[in-house]
Amino acid sequence: MRFLTWNIQSGGGNRIEMIVDEIAKLEPDVVGLTEVRHGNLGSLRGALHQRGYEFIETTCSTGSTNSVLIASKLPLKSIDEPVAHDPERWLPLQVAESDLHILCVHIPGGTDNKFGADGLGMSGKKRKELLWDEVIAYARRHRDQRVVLLGDFNTGLPEDAQGTPFVLSDYIRVLRLEKYVDTWRNRNPKAREYTWYTKRKNKETQTSDDYNGFRLDYIFVSPTLRDRVVDARHVHDVRINKVSDHAIVLVTSPRY
């Protein structure tokens, strides 16, 4: 069984067909997408459905708000576990007729401030803290069940960043203390790879080149699934070829 997560960058724009083609090549059973937007949600749904993903759930509504989506070849069941802040970035589901729980999440970045014209709102750091609190609470509630947490966590430990350290990186340590497994790190304990890069203009070529790398995108599994993961890898070609500005995370395990 394969799980895939990918930040598709600003809703995917005119890249939807390329995005879904890349997903289909990897043959995942469950797909968690972040930065989904309403403007081309119909074309994204349609393209996924044509490639065998009959079961699609999303938090996406009108406007250009970044949302999340889960597409699956297996039937899904909605779970009533709402959050008070940034609900469009939080999608808990269960595989129908199974005890497998899936949470797709997009944690805000530390600078993702959300203020209205009246000046009211919340800083990116506070938004990040509140949604991470919800992730930890969810992880604790379901700790003894089969759980997959996937998405863009905008967080990492020092070994997962070049340049400026992550804000609130201790949440990753808390998740580890709850015995959740960072699947990629578990399978690649000494490697240094990144799923997103800041850019810097090359004065000679006038191109925008990779500068500092960060590992933002993860698939975690609960303790009961630790030994079920047989492969975890990043697919960098999709970022290098500008299908999105993020790499894919792909995890393989025996079918549950």
Automatic annotation (TrEMBL):
Report the Pfam families cross-referenced here.
Exo_endo_phos (PF03372)
Under InterPro entries, the record lists: Endo/exonu/phosph_ase_sf (IPR036691), Endo/exonuclease/phosphatase (IPR005135), ExoIII-like (IPR037493)
SUPFAM superfamilies reported in the protein's UniProt record: DNase I-like (SSF56219)
One BP term from GO: DNA repair
Provide any one GO MF term from the record. double-stranded DNA 3'-5' DNA exonuclease activity
Signal peptide span: none
Domain Endonuclease/exonuclease/phosphatase: where?
Answer: 4-246
Coiled-coil ranges (or none): none
Judging by the UniProt lineage, the source's domain of life is Bacteria
From the Swiss-Prot or TrEMBL record, give the protein name.
Endonuclease/exonuclease/phosphatase domain-containing protein
